[in-house]
Structures are given as structure tokens and as C-alpha cells.
Amino acid sequence: MEKAVVDLAEEEASKLARQCVELDVDPERMVSTISKALKVVGDKYEHGEYFLPELVTAGTMMSSIVELVKPLLTAKGVKARGKVVIGTVKNDVHDLGKTIVAAMLISAGFEVVDLGTDVDPNKFLAAAKNEKPEIVAMSALLSTTRVEMKNVIDALERSGLRSKVKILVGGGAVTQDFASKIGADAYGEDAIEAIRICTRLVGDKTKEK
Amino acid sequence: MNSVERVLTTINLKEPDRVPLDLGGPISGITKIAYDGLKTHLEMRELPSVVWDRMQQLVEIDERVLQRFGIDFRHIRLNPPRKEEIKEVSGESFVNEWGITFRRSGYYFEIVDDLSPLYKASSIDDVESYRGPKPHEGRFGGLREKAKKLSEQGFAVTCDAFTGGVLELPVWLRGFKKFYHDLVANPEFADALLDRASELLKMFWGAFLDEVGDYAHIVLIGDDYGMQQGMLISPKMWREKVKDRMGELFSFIKQKGKVKIELHSCGSVRPIVGDLIEIGLDVLNPVQPRAKDMDSFQLKKEFADRICFHGGIDIQYVLPTGSPKDVQDEVRTRIQAFAPGGGYILAAAHNIQPDVPPTNVVALYDAVQKYGMYPIG
Prior knowledge:
The structure holds two protein chains of two kinds. By secondary structure, chain A is of the alpha/beta class. Chain A contains nine helices and five strands; from the N terminus they run ααααβαβαβαβαβα. Chain A folds into two domains: about 1-75, Methyltransferase, Methionine Synthase (B12-binding Domains), Chain A, domain 1 (Orthogonal Bundle); about 85-210, Rossmann fold, CATH 3.40.50. In chain A, strands 2-1-3-4-5 form a five-stranded parallel β-sheet, with helices on both faces. Chain B is an alpha/beta fold. Chain B has a single domain, classed as TIM Barrel. Chain B has helices spanning about 5-10, 30-40, 65-70, 125-130, 145-150, 170-175, 175-185, 185-210, 235-255, 275-280, 295-305, 320, 325-340, 360-370; strands at about 50-55, 60, 75, 85-90, 95, 100-105, 110, 155-160, 220, 260-265, 285, 310-315, 345-350. In chain B, strand 5 (about 95) and strand 6 form a beta hairpin. Chains A and B meet through helix 4 of A and helix 7 of B.
């Protein structure tokens, strides 16, 4: 299955995933296989072998396999690696990057609450309160909307939730400089780096506890 | 030198008297909020602000403003479609003549991916039966006279893009994620849609140039291939799927009129600049300075004797957040990189956005008097 995902052989991967379910293969083993495939796809993206069409296709394939496996994991009582609330900031509807990051996070074993695009700071705040995620991840493509990231951070600060979550930011209009300036915990240059950072941030959160 | 001589000299990679300036059109225009601020700053508040591009909120720029900055280009574009070709869903949403749905998102209108006209298409027949709008005469009325007049006044006349290019139009018709998925998982379907889009583009450009080809100097096509960190699709896929189709469109256009071709393609496109030159591209915009591998000095070093660059002034940070002095420094840097030997047209690397202060717009164009006179110091 790992090879089928990496080779973007959609039908083959979905056939194998269904067979695994029928044969009662351990769902955690399936997730770890998808995670391995994700790593290879990520490496290929970073090395300029894969681009957005390949990433979109791999993301679609992995999401559908994860959908298949999810009920089995729940039944077995397996816990996610961490919870991420993710969304594109207010007045910005660009969702491609954010959606790829969300799909990849799910494939990597995270629980993801996707708030969609054009997300009001209050909605981020409510999700941080109600979902109790380890990470709040925000995306912005536009120079005119990236200021909203600061508004979300300020809102979290005011409500006393800032110390309870790690903030990850990314998207076309964002740089490491900007991320540091607004007080985010991390900046992800692309989807693959975002996964790596989320894994690290969840580790940091666990240590803090 | 008048404007058109200045522009054509630089496109032909020779040094004009000064670096030519562009402002206007769909990718080097100005948004309404920025324009209103600029008018006030220039004490020209009485000028009208008419939005002609709802998606990007771009306005018509008055002749007096263009003259104030010494802009060398004048842009002509298709007249708006008939009222019945546009479907107003609400004040916040509309469907354009291509069947593409736009919804207001903050300041702009954005394409709604899953309402794209071919989002639910499942066969090549579905693609081939997509009709698209017609290039009817209402779209061209008065354009020939306008182009003739501007050309006779000595301006460089650019025919503006009216939709996406060979790759981008399919993305808009099918939806971004669906079409990118098609490119990998359903290549025959993707080919059919790329072909259909190419046919429609030729039909429109043919009719447009039949009207204005005698008086136009530049044709501007927009087709995004890059993002901040790299290309959207692999150079290999671009060469397989886009290069020949784009090359055919360039040749078709050049047969229709004695025009130079300018391509707008955002982001990091370095790996295919040589290919674009090979298929007949004359001017590359916007050479986005912060995108990966798009260093202005390197680009000039590699392609100086083969292509003219257009744009280059950083709109991601310097124009919205810098001081007028920072903007002047930015202009000087780009001129030093691109202008020696000719082959540079100065403009912001995209439309001037609401967050760009008017003092920075003035600094941008006025800096050319200081740094953009040949010989470049």
C-alpha cells in the first residue's frame, strides 16, 4: 500500500486498503504505513520530484484511506498524536495550502479540526476553547489578510488561552520574520515542514505538561 | 523618444532614454482603495473611481494620473459582456460569462472552486460540450478607434488578458483541486480540457486582434505557473502539457498582428524561462523578487540577451510596509539589476493593493527620474 500511495496509483491503493480492512489488518499498522508513504511523498516534494498536482493526488488518496481506517481506530480506542485546529484567516478564502496541510496532518495521525476559510478570530477562539487542541494553525495568502493572524493571537492572549496552545502560521504572505514579529511559535514554509513542526510542537506541549 | 519608441527599444533589448513605466491593466493596475488614497494625495480627488475588474477591485486610471507619473503604456481590453451573460446571484456573488462563480471575500471576489462549470464533468464529452462565451461584436465596439488614437498619440498599446491562459483557464473551469488531480490521475481528460481552453483562447484573441492588431504593440497573457517556493506543476509536466499549447497560442497571436507577447506568471518560474523564450515569449512579468530562484541579478545574467523583464518591484513587503526611502532603494536595486543594456519595464510586481500608501506609489514612479535615466549609473 505504501508503494501504491507513493506511486500515486489510486485504484491500486484503494483496493489494497479495502482488502486490509476485510482481512482485519491492525488499523494502527495501516496508519503507520500511510505515514511512511507520506514521508516519502514529502521527500519527493522537497526534492522537486513531486509538485502540487502530485501532492493534491496523494492527499486525496490518503484522506480516503484514513476515512476507511478511522472507525476502526475509534473502535480500538487508539488516541491521535495530537489535535490541530486549522483555518485560513478572515477575509482570505485561499484554501489549497491549508487543505493539503490538513490532509497530510490527518494522514500523519493527528486529529484535525478544519475551520475552513475566511475564519473570524472569534471562531478560532471558540475552537481553541472547545476543542482543546495542542496547536492552532493559521494560513494567509494575502499581505492584506496576514494581519488577522495577530488578531487571533491577541484574542487568545486576552482570553487567557494563549499559553494553552502552540501557534503555527504559514501561507504565501507569511515569512519567518513576520511569524516571529506577531509572536507565533512556529512558521511552516510548506505542508511537509508543517507536519514536522506539528510533531515537534506536540512533543514540546507534552514536556510542558 | 516617445513612449512607444522607448518601450519597443527596451523590448528589443537595446537601451532607450529611460526605463519605461507601466501602470494599468489586470496585473499592473491599482485597487480602488489605493487609487482613492492616491487621488487625495495628488489633490485630484474629483477624478472618478470606476471599478472595471470586480474580482481584483481594479479601477480605471485617469489620463491625468498616468501623465503625472509619465506612464508609457495604455491598456485596451474587451468591453464587458452583455448583461444577460452575467448572472448576479446576490450583491456578494456572481457567475461570469465563462460560468465561473465568484463570491466576495473581504476586499476581493474569489472563485468558488466547487461551483466551477466543469466541476462535475465526468467524461471528455462533457468537456467538449462546454461552449463558453462568444466573442460577439459587443465585446469589441470602439476598440479599434481607441487603439488607433492611443497609438497615434505615441503610447505603447497593450491588449489585456481577459481570462486565464492555457493552464489557468482549465483550473478555473474545472476547479483547482479537481484539475490538479486530473493532471495526475486522468491525463486524457486533462488533455481534452487543455485543448478546449486553447481553442477558446484562440477564438477570442483572433477576434480581438482582428479589431486592434494594426495598432497594438503588446499582447498580455496571464497564466500562473509559480508560487513562492517553486513551480505549481513540475517543469516536466509543464513541458508535456502546457509548452506546445502555449507556443501555438503565441504563434497564432503573432500571425494576427505585429505584436510582442508579454506573459504574466507569478512566483518562481525560473526552470521554464528558457522554454518560454524558445516558444516566442518577448516580455516576462512579474519577476517576483521574493520568490525562490528569482533573484533579479541572476535572471538578468542568465537571460539578458534573450528576454525583456517587466515588474519586479516588491509588492509583498516593500510597497505595503516600507518607507518611501525603502521604495526608492528597491527601485534602484531592480533598475541596477535589470535595466543595463535595455530589457526592463518598471512596475510593481502585481496590482497596487489597498495596503500600499500613496506616498509609496509616488516614490515608486518618481524614483525612475533619479535612477532610471540611461546610461544607468
